[in-house]
Design brief:
This protein has one domain. The protein has one helix and four strands; from the N terminus they run E-E-E-E-H. The strands form two sheets. It has a two-stranded antiparallel ribbon. Strands 3-4 form a two-stranded antiparallel sheet. A hairpin with a 2-residue loop joins strand 1 and strand 2. The longest helix has 18 residues. It is globular.
Amino acid sequence: MNGSDEVIIDKFGSLFRTKVTKDGGLLCPICGEKEGAPIFFSEEDLIRHLTRHELRKKESRGESNAPE
């Protein structure tokens, strides 16, 4: 798998730089281009995936989004 072009996605005031496959799929900038890495065909799916990365990171640090 080889990302051919880089694109910048602007969602909710955040900018994400990622690569686009020859088929038009978006690669996760965190997972990269390794074998078995997910490919997304909508910006919304990629953003949802990136949000999960952030949630896992917070959980591993013992942080919570729950109100106190």
